[in-house]
Amino acid sequence: MKIALIDSGNGLLAAAAAVRRLRPDADLVLSSDPASMPWGPRTPEDLTRHALACARAAAAHRPDALIVACNTASVHALEAIRAELEPGLPVIGTVPAIKPAAADGGPVAIWATPATTGSPYQRGLIRDFAAGVEVTEVPCPGLADAVEHADADAIAAAVRAAAANTPADVRGLVLGCTHYELVAERIRAAVAEIQTPGAPPVELYGSATAVATQALRRAGTEPDPGAAPTGRVTVLLTGREGELGAASLGYAEGRSLGAVSAARS
């Protein structure tokens, strides 16, 4: 079994690590294009062109399912990728976890890129899944780029700025960009500092595990965390086989996948 993932860069690491946890025997194909990152500021047409290139490179390795591990690409390019690759290859998009966050009652904050914050897409998810729940949309300029480059100072500054715009009574926080899941604990700590004294710890809602589970289902299998860790990792950088870079290896998710990739070679 083989699961492929695409993103501009490190945003695919969280979902890839989730697949690895759920099925240690699954082969992974990580297809990214770091030189084109970030995708958010690009036009929908340009973004779709880059996402399709990553998807085609991954599809050439004949995976059983493909995860678009990027919220922005899922908004703008998912339809085009599915039109080209399905039904032969199931394609799974990434949706912010607004529904489960709202189900817990709120108040909810959604941290997302400036391009996604306030977009018709995100507002539609709020309307459909969070009616009657207090929701605050929080743009996080520079955070995805800082995470991509594992720039600790820039990450800290971007997280502090977003936390300052987050209501003190928030109970649920949706990580609306796959890059943010790599610094979830730093986000949790920053939000804890602005929370109302005595409030319960904020609950973070990411998409990685849900997306990984859906990809396995679409591939015709089920999670089996106890399977032998025989899965191999192939890294594609702009379509060519390579290795995870130093920034990727700065995260636990990247190190776990990098060790498998190194063992393969």
What can you tell me about this protein's structure?
Pfam families: Asp_Glu_race. With 265 residues, the protein is an alpha/beta fold. It folds into 2 domains: 150 residues, Rossmann fold; 108 residues, 3-Layer(aba) Sandwich (Rossmann fold). The protein has 11 helices and 10 strands. The chain has a 6-stranded mixed sheet, with helices on both faces. Strands 6-5-7-8 form a 4-stranded parallel sheet. Helix 1 packs across helix 10, helix 2 packs parallel to helix 4 and helix 8 runs parallel beside helix 9.
CATH topology of the largest domain: Rossmann fold
Widest sheet: strand ordering: 4-3-1-2-9-10
Query: Helical amount among residues, as a percent range?
Result: 40-55%
Kindly, what is the distance between the CA atoms of the first and last residues, rounded to a whole number of angstroms?
Answer: 19 Å
Name the average pLDDT: 93
Radius of gyration: 18 Å
Following the backbone from N to C, one meets helices and strands in this order, namely: EHEHEHHEHEHEHHEHEHEEH
Would you count the extended β strands for me?
A: 10
In the CATH scheme, the class of the largest domain would be Alpha Beta
Using the alpha-carbon principal axes, give the shape: globular
Helical segment count:
11
CATH architecture of the largest domain: 3-Layer(aba) Sandwich
Query: Uncertain runs with pLDDT below 50, 5 residues or more?
Result: none
Strand content: 15-25%
